[in-house]
Structure formats: structure tokens, C-alpha cells
Amino acid sequence: MSVDDRKLDVLRAIVEDYVATQEPVGSKALVDRHHLGVSPATIRNDMAALEDEGYIAQPHTSAGRVPTDKGYRLFVDRLSTVKPLSAAEKRAIQTFLDGALDLDDVVSRTVRLLAQLTRQAAVVQYPSLSRSTVRHVELVMLAPTRVLVVLITDTGRVEQRVVDLPADADDALVGELRARINALAVGQDFAAVEARVTELTERFGPEDRAAVAAVTATLLSTLIERHEERVAVAGTGNLARYGQEFDRELEPLLSALEEHVVLLRLLGEATSPTPVRVRIGSENAQTGLSATSVVTSGYGPGELALASMGVVGPTRMDYPGTIAAVGAVARYVSKILAAH
Amino acid sequence: MSVDDRKLDVLRAIVEDYVATQEPVGSKALVDRHHLGVSPATIRNDMAALEDEGYIAQPHTSAGRVPTDKGYRLFVDRLSTVKPLSAAEKRAIQTFLDGALDLDDVVSRTVRLLAQLTRQAAVVQYPSLSRSTVRHVELVMLAPTRVLVVLITDTGRVEQRVVDLPADADDALVGELRARINALAVGQDFAAVEARVTELTERFGPEDRAAVAAVTATLLSTLIERHEERVAVAGTGNLARYGQEFDRELEPLLSALEEHVVLLRLLGEATSPTPVRVRIGSENAQTGLSATSVVTSGYGPGELALASMGVVGPTRMDYPGTIAAVGAVARYVSKILAAH
DNA sequence: TGCTGGCACTCGACCGTTGCAAGTGCCAAT
DNA sequence: ATTGGCACTTGCAACGGTCGAGTGCCAGCA
Fold it and tell me: Which of A272, A294, B139, B182 is the most exposed, fewest CB within 10 Å of its CB?
């Protein structure tokens, strides 16, 4: 075994021990707990080298070492093997998710499941509408200048939005608009609707065009955006279980979990379902959360991810277990969505 | 001034100082900060009496006194004067709430506003549907045995639910049912709909009755229940700002804030909008939250409350300020709902 | 009767000291 | 390259003493 290999072994051992005990780990404890075939002194040399390279650090002169963000990064990228889920966990995923009826239900069950499996805070973004097809569009007049737009998709998803019209409208106009929109949108996916619905304005008289444009604009842009911005959160209580070090981070993190904008930035862009992505500590410093890590995965029926789900916790977290849980849940939810 | 009056003054002073400083308050500090016209020794006698009666307690022999739950209760019921809101706060309420479009928006703005005003965690229950009138009912077939029921109310509220039918249905049946339901329900309030819609089943042939009954049952019961169970939460981060003593309570409280069942029990029954109700510490021990207090108020357009809103925090909270804020926001939101 | 000053007492908080143990870095030897 | 030995650093816990805030009680006084 070459030197470099052992150094990486040492780093792996440090990360594992530190995550398990939450205490700085020293050279002696290391050789006791892991059967590395060398003496503490040798380990010390390796540790000094690791510290020089920035993978570990010591909180004070005479304490053990603690992994740095850079150390966790290396651990996640090259050192950790995916921890297979236990049979009980697999069973939990199935029984928890199989009873779900509609999309809301899937999302809310998923987020609670993730929180329970990882014992951390879970976040699930609602799937984007862009791949759904339109089942029905309903327009309801609330007042002469206010119309409620309701969009129903084939996945059973309902989106609503109130539109303020630039001019008065009457029931006849709304009725006609409803009929025309449904005629060209029902059964189409969103991209197709977008292409066709913009022409709709021309079919109406000039005096009605402003109102029609307002409705179609809402239908196209706002509904998608609003939907993509929706997220479900669960397991915030788990975050309170961590001690001192994480306490400072707790308040900003809880606030962030309530702010959908920050939350979505934290989840990041969902491009493809795999692989599971990990952002560690300072890597998401833009949000001011330098002591928290995020483990996310895209999910959705096809090869393209519709949305992201993930888990949020302290940098000192069980990465292999969390990655496995997030990956498994994302795969299972994707399967469910594909079956619909 | 009689003896009893001064004892109550002392209790009031203790509560105010303790809330402000978070530290046990002694007899000397008391006469220094408040201009009670007597000496520390006299105060000590009063304090001893108050302790005998269970209103205050001392954490250890040689520390100051701390209010008990019973002491807070007396303070809230008889000693605290309603602290009027500052002009800035009143302005904040108006500017924050006036831009709200639909009901969702009102609720989400309200809950954030409450959290911000009180610097604690806020909870707002969605208004019950029972006073709304039906604007439109939409049925959408998702599969031969699955129908999506969408209810649109005059307040712009949209409720949805997937129904599993006991037998296959076709478009014709669903279309007829949609037409009949809308014919008798549109413009009616919920009580009226309930009375009339049950007869609907008889109009259909025996082979369809099971399916029709399933849909109407969903329409009547589930939609209301589900809606009444919905709550919005904000400001959980504020809870992390309290020290030690509240840390133990933090995890169960955060969990409770995610569990709508517990949360609704915490909010309590909303009967009439006023007055603001306060539940202190052990008074809601059924939920296991013996160190948290809840300040709630009903709200809604009429004299009857449609739902509850409130604030959750440690027993050591600024009751007068919180009560004033909750009351003012509840009144303002009620006014907005009435104007709709 | 109620208030007050005085006094002895209690007990947690604070502080400096000390001993301990964990852990390190370095070095000479293998 | 690895190892055992050794001196060194340093946080931490235990200890003891002092301090001060706060109390309860009592005798005196209006």
C-alpha cells in the first residue's frame, strides 16, 4: 500500500470517526478503532501532511483533527462507498410512498420520508409543469376586472391565479375565451400550448385584446414559474438536535428554509436525475450558510429531471447514508411519476 | 395603596423585568428600576407571600424570583395593560397586507407579518369554507375510476381532491353530474349546498349512484375538512434566538409546527374573533410543550370567527406586545376579508 | 398593624491554581 | 519509510477561596 493510499485511508477514518463521535479525533484513537497496520507516530506524520494540504485542521493546538470542507469534499468524491440501504429502510420507502394519490400527496409524503430516513431537514421541490399536458382550463369571473385562471393538468395538478384585467370584461367574452383556450390547449404539453396560445389574441376584436393577452400571459408564464417555485419542507426539528457548533447556524438556516428564493438556490438547478449532488459548507457561502451541507438529487419521470429534492444538515453529516437515502427516494419517486 | 395592590404591582414588575432581562430578579433591583415607594425589605415580604401563593419561584436559594406559569396567567389576566402599537407597526400592517390579491396571498402575508412584528413563530389557519359561496365546480376524469373534483369559491379560493370511484364512469356521466352540481350549487353557501346536494343521487340511475355518491361525499366533507386543516407557518428561525432554557423545547416545538394536527390543537377552537386568547406553558401540556406559550385570536369577516391565527414562543415572552400585535393583525385581516 | 433597617446566612458565580490527559512535533534509531 | 521515545502544548476538570446578590428573620418604630 503506497503512502498516498494510506493518507487517504487516514482521512476517511478521521471523517468517519468525527461524524460518529462529534469530537476531534487523535492519532491514537485512530489506530485503536481502525486496523491500520501502523503506529500512531506514522499516522501523525500523515496527519501533518493532510493538514498542510488543507484537508484537516485542529481546533486548538492539543486537540485531535477535524475535517475541513475540503476534506469532506475529497471524502465524498473519492473515499466514500455508497452505503446500501437496509431492508427496513427500503420497505419504509415503499410503504410510505405507495399509498400516495395525487401529486401533492407524493410530495408531502416524500419530504417527510426523507426527513425521517436521514434525521435531518428535507426539501422537495414541486415538479415543473413543462412536461405535463393540459387537461382543462377554467376561467371564473370574480369581478368585472378580475378573473380567476385555473389550470388542471393530466397529472391531477391544479394551479390557480387571479388576473387583474386592464379593461372590463363580461361573461360572454370570458366564456368564449374559455372555449377557445380549451379547444387548442387540452391534450397538449406546455411547450405546444405556448406556441399556439399566443396567436389566440388575434382572433379577438381590438377592444378585447388587452384582456385576452393578460389572461394568456398569466396562463403561460406565471403558472409555470409559481409552480416551479413551490417547495415542501419537513424535519426542521431534527436540526435542533445538533449541538453548540451548529446552533449559530440554526437561526439563519431556519429562515432560509422559509424563504423559497434562497431555498431554491440551495437546491440548485436540476438537470438530470443522477447523480446525487453534494454541496459542502463554504461551497454555498453565497447564501451565508457556511456550516451546512446540502445533498440533492433531481427527479422526474424521464431522463430529464423535473425538479430537485434534497436534505439539509450540518457539514458534519453522514454523507454516505444521506446520499444513499436521497438517491433511493429520488429513484423511487421518479418511478412513481413515470407510472402515472 | 392597599397591601394586595402592591403585591400585584410587585408581580407585574417581576414579570416585566424578567421578560426584559431573562434573569431572575431580586428585591433590590426591583426597587431600583421601578419607583415603588417602599424599601427592599418590604418587597421581600411581598415576594415571600407571592411565592407561597405560587405566583413566583426561585431557581436556587440565593437567586432572585422568576414568575411561574400561574404568575404569568395572573399577569396576563389582570395586570397587563394593552400595549398600543407604534405608528410604524400600524403602518407596517397596512402596507404589508393591502397588496394582497387572493386568499392564499392574504394568509401568507399575514403569517410573515405576525412573525416579523412579534419576533416569534407565527401560525395562521386558512379560513373555513363554510361561509363562502360556491362559484363553480369542475369535474375532470383522470382515469375510468378516478375523478378530480375542483371547487372554486367566490373568494377566489380553489380546493381540489382526487376521488376513487367504486365503479367505472364515462364522460357522459361526469358531464351530466358536473352540470347538475353546478346548477344547484353555484351561488349557494356551503350549508345550503350540503342540504341540497345529497338529494342529487336519486336523480341518477341505480348503476351510477355509487359513483355520484362518492363525488358528492368528497365535495361536502373532505373539501371542508382539508381546508380547515391547512395552516401556514413562519418565523421559526426566531425561536432559535432564545437561550438554553428554551433549547430543550425547540426540537419538539419545531416538530409540532410541522404536524398540522398538533398545531390545530395548539391554535384551539375559533369561536369569536375577540378576545385574544393566551395559553401559558403547562396549560397546553397535552401537547408536551410545557415551556411554550401560545397567543391566538380568531378572525373572519362576520362576528363569528372563521379560523384562528396566533403566535408561539417561550413562556417568557412579551405578552402585552404580542397580544396587541395578534389582535391588531386579526382585526385588520378580518376587515380585508369582509371587504371582499 | 405595617414598614423598615440591620444582620446572619446561603449559595451560585467567578477566579486563579493545579494536576491530568490527550495530543502533537521532532528526532534518533532501525 | 517506520517507529518508539520524549519534551511540549494546552484544554479541561477539580479544587478552594472570595465575592456578592439575595434571602429570611427580628427588633424597633410610626
Answer: A272
